[in-house]
Design a protein that fits this description.
- Helices cover about 20% and strands about 35% of the residues.
- It folds into three domains: about 55-280, Thrombin, subunit H, CATH 2.40.10.120; about 285-380, Roll (Pdz3 Domain); about 385-485, Pdz3 Domain (Roll).
- By secondary structure, it is of the alpha+beta class.
- Residues about 1-5, about 5-50, about 80-105 and about 380-390 have low confidence and may be disordered.
- The strands form five sheets. Strands 23, 24, 25, 26, 27, 28 and 29 form a seven-stranded antiparallel sheet that branches.
C-alpha cells in the first residue's frame, strides 16, 4: 500500500506543477519588481482584439426570423438519378435523399431535398438558389416559428442560379435587409444562416476569404468566398455582415476541401429580382462580340503595357458591336462608364445593361484610345437542357424540344417559332387536352413561345387548377387548346 501512496503523491505534485506552468505561460506576466505594473501589450494586439466580435448572438437574433427552410420533392426516372459523388461542388444539387418506387411506377422514384431561403419582402417573396427548386413538383416553406406553407415559383435564372419563390397566407413576416456586397472587404466577418443537412436555423461564422471568384458554374461567376461553415442544405440561405444585412446568397461548396464556400453577391441579386418578379425570367443585354482575356504575351503583341481589358476576337455581323464600329483586335477597357478589367467583367456589365440603351464604349486600337457609342441589343436566352434534346414537363405530361429550321421545313412551316411536341404521356393533362406528337406550341395565353426555356418558364408560373390557352400549329392549321394544370 505504501508504494501506491507515494505514487499518488508524486502524481498530484506533477499535476499542480503542470497547472502552474500553464498558468504562467498563458495568464501571467513576470514582473521585474514587486508591486510594479505589468507592461502594456503592443498596440497592435489591442487593434486586433477590437476587430473580433465578442459574440454573434445579437446578429443571429436579428436575422433568424427572416431565414426559411425549403423542402422540395419531384418525380424522376431511375435513369435520371444524379451522380453526386462526381460533383466537385457538393451543394449544387439539394436532392440528397432517395426513396423507393413512387405511385406504383417501378420506373419512377420520388426525390426529396432541402435548402434554405431568405424572406425579402413583407408580402412573402423569398430569395433562394435556382438549383434548390429547379424541377420541383412541390415546395414546402417552413418559417422560423415552425409554420409550414406551400411555395410557388415566381421566376428563376439558371445562369446566376437565383430563384424567387412566393408564399401566401403568412403574417408578421420579418424580411431581411439587403446590404452592399461591393462594400465587403477580404477579412470582414460574416455569418451564414440556413439548414445544413436539414438542421434548421443553424448559424455559423467566418470571414470573407476572397471576392470575385470564378468557379466554372456559369457565365456570370463572381462569387464571394468564405470560410464560414457551409454544407448541403445551406443553399439559398443568406450570408450576413456585421450590420445584420444580407450580402450574399450561399450557393456552393468545394466538396474536396474545408472552409471553402461560395456565395452570390447580393448586388447581383438586386438587379435580377425585379425582373424575376415581373416576368419570371431575366432579359440581358447583348453587344455581339467574342472576347478573351489579355495575357502578357498578347498585350505585348498588341503594343499594350497592361493586361487590363477584354480583347475582341470576333464581331458578329449586324450586331450592336459592328454598328458601333467595334473591330477585331480592339481591347475594350470601359463600358457604360465602368472599368473593364477582363472578359468576365465585360460579360457581366453588358448583361446587366438595359436593352435598347445607348452607352459609351472605350477601346484601345493600335495603341490609341477611341470612344464609341453602342446601342445594346437583347440576348437570346439559350437552354442548356434544350441543346441536349427533349425536355419533359412532368405536370403536363408532355415532352418538347426547340423548333429548328430543319424541323420546321419537315412540318411544312414557314417560320420556326415555338416548340415542337415530341411525346405525350397517356392520361396526362396534355393527353386530356388532345395535344399530339408533332404539334407546335406557338403561344401560351396569347404570348409567343420563343423556345424551350420560354415554354418552361411560362408553364412553371401557372398555379394548380389554372387553365392555360395554347395556340398550336398542326398539319399547317392553327387551333387553340385549353389545358388545365393539375
Amino acid at each position: 500500500m505504501k508504494p501506491q501512496k507515494n505514487f499518488k503523491t508524486i502524481f498530484i505534485a506533477l499535476l499542480l506543477a503542470g497547472t502552474l506552468i500553464i498558468g504562467i505561460g498563458f495568464g501571467m506576466t513576470p514582473a521585474s519588481k514587486a508591486n510594479e505594473p505589468a507592461p502594456a501589450p503592443p498596440s497592435s494586439v489591442f487593434a486586433g482584439a477590437a476587430m473580433v466580435p465578442g459574440n454573434f448572438s445579437d446578429i443571429a437574433d436579428q436575422v433568424r426570423a427572416g431565414v426559411v427552410n425549403i423542402q422540395v420533392s419531384k418525380k424522376v426516372s431511375n435513369a435520371e438519378f444524379p451522380n453526386l459523388q462526381g460533383n466537385p461542388f457538393g451543394d449544387r444539387n439539394p436532392f440528397g435523399e432517395f426513396f423507393g418506387p413512387f405511385g406504383g411506377n417501378p420506373h419512377e422514384r420520388k426525390q426529396q431535398g432541402v435548402g434554405s431561403g431568405c424572406i425579402i419582402s413583407q408580402d412573402g417573396y423569398i430569395l433562394t438558389n435556382n438549383h434548390v427548386i429547379e424541377g420541383a413538383d412541390q415546395i414546402k416553406v417552413k418559417l422560423a416559428d415552425g409554420k409550414e406553407l406551400d411555395g410557388r415559383i415566381i421566376g428563376r435564372d439558371p445562369k446566376t442560379d437565383l430563384a424567387l419563390v412566393k408564399i401566401d397566407g403568412a403574417s408578421d413576416l420579418k424580411p431581411l435587409k439587403l446590404g452592399d456586397s461591393d462594400a465587403l472587404r477580404v477579412g470582414n466577418w460574416v455569418v451564414a444562416v440556413g439548414s445544413p443537412f436539414g438542421l434548421e436555423q443553424t448559424v455559423t461564422a467566418g470571414i470573407v476569404s476572397a471576392k470575385g471568384r470564378v468557379i466554372g458554374s456559369g457565365p456570370y461567376d463572381n462569387f464571394i468566398q468564405t470560410d464560414a461553415s457551409i454544407n448541403p442544405g445551406n443553399s439559398g440561405g443568406p450570408l450576413i455582415n456585421m450590420q445584420a444585412e444580407v450580402v450574399g446568397i450561399n450557393t456552393a461548396i468545394m466538396a474536396s476541401g474545408q472552409g471553402i464556400g461560395f456565395a452570390i453577391p447580393i448586388n447581383m441579386a438586386k438587379d435580377i429580382v425585379p425582373q424575376l418578379e415581373k416576368t419570371g425570367h431575366v432579359t440581358r443585354g447583348l453587344l455581339g462580340v467574342s472576347i478573351q482575356d489579355l495575357t502578357p504575351e498578347l498585350a505585348k503583341s498588341f503594343g499594350l503595357k497592361e493586361t487590363h481589358g477584354a480583347l475582341v476576337a470576333k464581331v458578329v455581323s449586324g450586331s450592336p458591336a459592328e454598328k458601333a464600329g467595334i473591330a477585331l483586335g480592339d481591347v475594350i477597357v470601359q463600358f457604360n462608364g465602368q472599368t473593364v478589367t477582363g472578359s468576365k467583367d465585360l460579360s457581366r456589365i453588358v448583361a446587366a445593361t438595359p436593352v435598347g440603351e445607348t452607352v459609351a464604349v472605350r477601346v484601345i486600337r493600335n495603341g490609341k484610345t477611341i470612344d464609341l457609342q453602342a446601342k445594346v441589343g437583347e440576348m437570346e436566352e439559350e437552354s442548356a437542357t434544350a441543346s441536349a434534346g427533349d425536355v419533359s414537363h412532368k405536370t403536363l405530361g408532355v415532352s418538347v424540344q426547340n423548333l429548328t429550321p430543319q424541323i420546321a421545313r419537315e412540318l411544312g412551316l414557314k417560320k420556326n417559332i415555338g416548340v415542337v411536341v415530341t411525346g405525350v404521356e397517356p392520361g396526362s393533362a396534355a393527353a386530356e387536352a388532345m395535344i399530339q406528337t408533332g404539334d407546335v406550341i406557338q403561344e401560351i395565353d396569347r404570348k409567343p413561345v420563343k423556345n424551350v426555356t420560354d415554354f418552361m418558364q411560362k408553364i412553371e408560373k401557372a398555379k394548380a387548377g389554372e387553365t392555360l390557352l395554347l395556340l398550336i400549329e398542326r398539319e399547317q392549321n392553327s387551333l387553340f387548346v385549353a389545358i388545365t394544370i393539375k
